[in-house]
């Protein structure tokens, strides 16, 4: 348990150090770089023309549907990881029968696949 | 060297010394890998196209990247007027943030593992997702239509290919019975079991395709497709902001190839040479494959990209998972 905590402690420390390691080049760059000025210096770069309007506008919902299926899927896939860990465990086989875990994985993945079939039939994957 | 380490341990304590040593090694790995990969990629592309590539600085142009970095350090970091300032400045840092953690989870050899976490693979995917947030922050905050499109494309592409990536590794996890990357390597090396690519060839192919897409590499480089989006999500980033994005990208290439080498190719296992050498050889072999993809396949259109993931790779990897589960039961 102690070693497990220290593992995640190390991960946390590495994240903190990662911030510094990522920010350091930016800060050095900011300190030593030259400064320029000019009328169009602070413009957004779009094809060398003056940009028309803001980029923060509403746009196609197709991306949103993909995101929605993904959320459903990804959570389900995460549930598969613990199953993969105890799959074909002799203890489990002794208490619940040899094919129990396979059947349950089958049902789970089957329902997952149905989700894809449903989205397919509903035309989510048809790009407009 | 051992005397120096002992002296450091006396001063700072064992944990801090190990942490600092590990951090130094990982930082060196990140920097050297990125510099090598930029040079390597340019050399391979030159070789494919019958050119020489960088030749001017150092033998075969090996110092070219180093000089490029120094040049970028001296460039002005312009922050355009209409961007979302905080998000804009933070984006490259967020994209780079998990790089150290991800590298620390890879098994370089039996005893050279920085954080030997029990849930290693899960951590790799969890932290891998953080960098995507950095990419999207960069794309959105730029207030640039090309950058926004690049960011949105990066997100939908990454979430589409995250699933085959997870499902193909799941087949390996199912066979190995552990999430610990070092233990998965041990399973492959123990008692003539053999490397997992022999049992999971389909999973390896799906993994490589999905990993290429996850790192936004050609032919899946539509988030930064030069010919349509200028430079995609990092269009507005000059100087070091741009460089940090690229540092992150090359580090993730190393990470996905490292996980692939550990899961499918036996990690540090191999004759004659010491473990870390084999690990690096396998990782760079996979990286060479990824570089060659770029010069072999044309870029996919967005709907083709989504079709490939949702209609082919995900069903295939689900089927592969079920077949694996069945075979484990039967054997």
What key attributes describe this structure?
heterodimer, A: 128 residues, mainly alpha, 4 helices, 0% strand, B: 331 residues, 2 domains, globular
Instruction: Work out the largest interface and the residue count of each chain.
Output: A-B, 65 and 83 residues
Distance between the termini of chain B: 50 Å
Name the helix and strand elements of chain A from N-terminus to C-terminus, one letter apiece: HHHH
Structural class of chain A: mainly alpha
Counted beta strands of chain B: 0
Radius of gyration of chain A: 26 Å
What oligomeric state do these chains adopt?
heterodimer
- Helical stretch count of chain A? 4
* Average pLDDT score of chain B: 83
Give the DSSP E fraction of chain A (strand runs of 2 or more residues).
Answer: under 5%
SSE series of chain B: HHHHHHHHHHHHHH
Low-confidence stretches of chain B: none
The count of strands of chain A amounts to: 0
Question: Could you give a short account of the major beta sheet of chain A?
Answer: none
Q: Strand count, sense and closure of the main sheet of chain B?
A: none
Question: How many whole angstroms does the radius of gyration of chain B measure?
Answer: 21 Å
Overall spatial form of chain B: globular
Between the first and last Cα atoms of chain A, what is the distance in angstroms?
52 Å
Describe the structure.
- The complex is a heterodimer of chains A (128) and B (331).
- Chain A is 66% helix and 0% strand.
- Chain A has 128 residues and is an all-alpha fold.
- Chain A folds into two domains: 1-33; 61-121.
- In chain A, helix 2 (62-86) runs antiparallel to helix 4 (100-121).
- Chain A is flat and about 75 Å long.
- The termini of chain A are far apart.
- The model of chain A has no long low-confidence stretch (mean pLDDT 78).
- Chain B has 331 residues and is mainly alpha-helical.
- Chain B folds into two domains: 1-74; 84-330, no CATH class.
- In chain B, 71% of the residues lie in helices and 0% in strands.
- Chain B has helices at residues 2-12, 14-48, 64-73, 85-96, 99-104, 120-141, 145-176, 181-189, 196-199, 201-214, 226-229, 239-264, 275-296, 302-330.
- Chain B is globular.
- The mean pLDDT of chain B is 83.
- Chains A and B meet through helix 1, helix 2 and helix 4 of A and helix 2, helix 4, helix 5, helix 6 and helix 7 of B.
């Amino acid at each position: 348990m102690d070693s497990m905590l220290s593992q995640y402690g190390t991960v946390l420390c590495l994240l903190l150090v990662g911030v510094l390691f990522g920010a350091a080049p930016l800060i050095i760059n900011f300190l030593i770089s030259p400064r320029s000025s000019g009328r169009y210096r602070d413009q957004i770069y779009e094809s060398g023309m003056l940009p028309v309007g803001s980029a923060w506008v509403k746009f196609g919902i197709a991306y949103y549907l993909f995101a929605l299926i993904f959320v459903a899927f990804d959570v389900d896939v995460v549930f598969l990881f613990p199953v993969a860990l105890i799959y074909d465990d002799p203890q489990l086989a002794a208490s619940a029968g040899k094919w129990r875990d396979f059947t349950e994985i089958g049902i789970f993945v089957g329902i997952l696949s149905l989700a894809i079939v449903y989205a397919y039939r509903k035309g989510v994957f048809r790009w407009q | 060297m051992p005397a120096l380490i002992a002296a450091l341990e006396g001063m700072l304590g064992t944990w801090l010394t190990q942490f600092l040593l590990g951090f130094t090694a990982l930082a060196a790995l990140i920097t050297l890998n990125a510099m090598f990969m930029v040079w390597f990629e340019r050399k391979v592309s030159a070789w494919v196209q019958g050119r020489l590539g960088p030749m001017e600085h150092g033998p075969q142009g090996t110092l070219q990247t180093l000089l490029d970095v120094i040049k970028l350090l001296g460039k002005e970091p312009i922050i355009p007027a209409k961007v979302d300032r905080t998000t804009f400045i933070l984006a490259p840092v967020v994209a780079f943030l998990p790089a150290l953690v991800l590298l620390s989870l890879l098994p370089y050899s039996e005893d050279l593992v920085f954080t030997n976490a029990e849930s290693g693979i899960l951590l790799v995917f969890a932290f891998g997702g953080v960098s995507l947030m950095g990419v999207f922050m960069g794309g959105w905050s730029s207030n640039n239509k090309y950058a926004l499109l690049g960011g949105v494309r990066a997100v939908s592409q990454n979430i589409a290919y995250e699933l085959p990536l997870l499902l193909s590794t799941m087949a390996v996890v199912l066979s190995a019975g552990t999430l610990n990357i070092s233990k998965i390597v041990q399973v492959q090396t123990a008692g003539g079991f053999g490397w997992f690519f022999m049992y999971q060839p389909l999973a390896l192919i799906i993994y490589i395709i999905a990993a290429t897409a996850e790192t936004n590499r050609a032919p899946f480089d539509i988030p930064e497709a030069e010919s349509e989006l200028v430079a995609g999500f990092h269009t507005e980033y000059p100087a070091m902001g741009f460089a940090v994005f690229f540092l992150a990208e090359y580090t993730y290439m190393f990470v996905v190839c490292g996980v692939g080498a550990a899961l499918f190719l036996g990690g540090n296992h191999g004759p004659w040479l010491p473990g870390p050498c084999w690990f690096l050889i396998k990782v760079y072999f996979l990286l060479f494959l990824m570089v060659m993809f770029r010069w072999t396949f044309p870029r996919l259109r967005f709907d083709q990209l989504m079709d490939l993931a949702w209609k082919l790779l995900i069903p295939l990897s689900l089927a592969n998972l079920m077949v694996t589960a069945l075979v484990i039961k039967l054997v």
